[in-house]
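Entry 12.
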Amino acid sequence: MAFTYQTFSSSMHFYDEDSKNDGILLVRPLLHFSKEDMYKVCKVGGQDWVEDPTNQSLLYARNRIRMSLRSLSSYTFKSELQAVISACRKTRAFVDQFCTKLMNQAVTIVHQHGYAIIDLEILNPSKMADLCLTKFMTLVLQFISQRQRPVRGSTSKLLLEYIRTFPCKTSLTAAGCYLCPATRSKGTKILVCCSVDCPFPSKMESTFIHSDAEKTRSMPCELEQIITDGKLYSDHFVPDASDVYFLDSTSESVLTEAKRLNIISDSTYRNILLLQKDEIEYFKARIEDDVECESKDEVENITTCSNEPLRPGQICYFMSRFIVRWSLSKNIPVIPIPEKSYCDWVLEGEGWHHHPWSCTLSHDMVVEVRHMIESDWLYLAKLLNHASLDNVHQQRICTACESEQSSVNRNLYLVYLRFSAERALKLLKSIPVAARRSLPVLVNHQGLLLSIPSIGFKNCPCLTVSCIFKPRVPLGGGHSSFMQFL
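Predicted 3D structure (tokens):
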């Protein structure tokens, strides 16, 4: 158990795009005290305390184990068990710090588009212990997928096999992420992006957050100091690799390794195995009911997630990573574009002036946010050639300009669309194909593409869209420290 640990809510609470998501910092300063010690402290100090009634319930494994341990409360058993716990703390502290340093060296996060690149040559996975490599990949995948549940079991083994294949030549979908060789890396780098094909959590889920200018959320200076001091203090106690006992052990082999190293005696080893046997039998007796309940909950979560319309000024938190907001301006001044490549110009600012522009979109319009699909790329390509647009899209353009009854305005709109599409396609070439699919896209109720904010495309200059990559859980899972109590 960590001395300090940051936990994050399943939903974000933003008051604006710049709000921090610091989560909740849990600090456990009494980990090295026994329960009997804390009772004595309270009694001597004349302080009342609160007992959690669930601590006596046999429904929870921790309570069953705690009560079983009371019959094994000899000094030898307690001291040996504490020695194993201390060795596990050292191992976890070492692994956490090792992975943090390695992520700073081997992982590049492309924040604007929400994907990561792992440099296998720097990572050197063939030389890493399974425990360190598993933790490293878990942290990267949890950040990209924004899932609370860590990578475990067969998925963990599959990832280890995949990441140790050098150079990388295949792709893999795991834990809500899609992994494949990075473009032009010859398999020396791996792209990790969010998989839109995973059924859970829903790829179409979007959460709306309403701004409140009167409220501010900021971390107090005292709390920031606690985190800073905790990191410095915990770093001081991180052991060298030579002092870490369980680095090459699995969770199943920790007790065996502790016995081999004479950390625990034969009697302590047998007693712990008996406790483990009892828990396994208890677990098997209930596993069918638990699996059935979990299956029902998962189906319910998948089916209840759906897109809702996004109105002007509202904020959408899309796929647990992008904050999206849009609005319409009443009038944007523009001029015709000179005869040169559209990509040499900017869509907004002083480059467009002297000619009035009427918005082609309705101010009472609502939009939907979804991930990018192949038809969006094809639509951008069609916009470069007006003759290739189908009748529906041509009718949409003509209708947009009917209010002006002006061929000049119609031509300006077509030029603007070509200009915006050309620049968007140029930027798309710099984004890996797999990563493009998780980009947020705005469409109207008819499914017409309105904007791809991450690459600056919008089908009307009056449309203002902001898209900020702001994951709920930071890379590394937030602050934690595992101090050694002697």
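Annotation: The first strand starts at residue 4 and ends at 7. The chain is about 40% helix and 15% strand.
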